[in-house]
Write a structure and sequence with these properties.
The protein is α/β, with parallel strands linked by helices. The chain has a single domain (about 10-260), classed as 4-Layer Sandwich (Metallo-beta-lactamase, Chain A), CATH 3.60.15. About 20% of the residues lie in helices and about 25% in strands. The protein has helices spanning about 50-60, 90-95, 105-110, 195-205, 225-240, and strands at about 10-15, 15-20, 30-35, 40, 65, 85, 135-140, 145, 150-155, 165-170, 175, 185, 215, 250-255, 255-260. The protein has a seven-stranded mixed β-sheet with strand order 1-2-3-4-5-6-7. It has a five-stranded mixed β-sheet with strand order 8-9-10-11-13, with no helix packed on it. It has a three-stranded mixed β-sheet with strand order 12-15-14. The longest helix has 15 residues, at about 225-240.
């Protein structure tokens, strides 16, 4: 397996790789999916190091970056690629900067609690998130043909207005970004988030058939498919109890949690 000082590369199967940044407190995962004609890179990580250095070692296929959402820890190496796709509702953040988030806060978050040696030349004090044009947009229900492998796009707002999940029906892999993961809370307490939209998105992914594995973008790599069913049930309980709104705090469930 490929060795690297910053990224941890894990092969999920012969055509699917997780590229993880375990040296940072957010423990971010990006995912490279190979078809016969092209590859899709789901997010590009923190930008502390250049993820393109890794993808070039894994494939010589043309790569399309498909973005779960435009937050700093998911677009860090977007500028290293020629073709970048987002949902229309997050496009403005990609091109103009993330609303309500200062550069001082971004630099504090990217530079704290580092547990691996930093790449030469990286300095959190001068870190600047990617900002630039999208090649195009993705929409709910769209099919992405990689050649012998097709991904289905799901619009799943809540954590961000344009948040997307990606489903590989042949393998049963569901890539959930920051909609659902274990270990630390899913966040929906910022002005740009929506608790009501987030739990509706949980219900949406709970209805996807034939999921074999759930891959969130943080912490543990690969979760059992039942977690999305539990999330759908949790959505109903939160709604019935009037808790799907800002200020109700931290809600814990079996294998995941959410903070409103």
């Amino acid at each position: 397996m490929l060795k690297d000082t910053w990224f941890t590369v894990q092969r999920i199967d012969d055509r699917t790789y997780a590229i993880s940044e375990y040296g940072h407190w957010e423990r971010v995962h990006s995912f490279l999916l190979l078809g016969s004609a092209s590859a899709a890179l789901i997010d590009t990580g923190l930008g502390i190091d250049n993820i393109r250095r890794i993808t070039d070692r894994l494939t010589d296929l043309p790569i399309d970056v498909v973005t779960t959402h435009v937050h700093t820890d998911h677009i860090g190496s977007h500028g290293r690629f020629e073709r970048i796709y987002v949902h229309e509702l997050d496009r403005g953040w990609l091109e103009n900067g993330i609303a309500g988030l200062t550069i001082e806060q971004i630099r504090r978050d990217v530079g704290r609690d580092i547990t691996l040696p930093l790449p030469p030349g990286f300095d959190a004090r001068t870190y600047t998130p990617f900002r630039g044009p999208a090649t195009g947009t993705l929409e709910d229900g769209q099919l992405l043909d990689l050649g012998g492998r097709t991904l289905t796009v799901y619009h799943t707002p809540g954590h961000s207005p344009g948040h997307l999940c990606f489903f590989d029906p042949a393998a049963g892999y569901l890539f959930t970004g920051d909609l659902l993961y274990g270990g630390t809370p899913v966040y929906a307490f910022y002005p740009s988030t929506s608790p009501e939209d987030l739990i509706a998105s949980w219900e949406k992914i709970a209805a996807i058939p034939d999921v074999t594995r759930v891959f969130g973008s943080h912490n543990e790599l690969g979760l059992e498919p039942e977690i999305r069913l539990r999330a759908g049930e949790a959505a109903g309980r939160l709604r019935q109890n009037g808790l799907a709104k800002f200020g109700t705090g931290l809600h814990r469930f079996d294998g995941f949690s959410v903070q409103f």
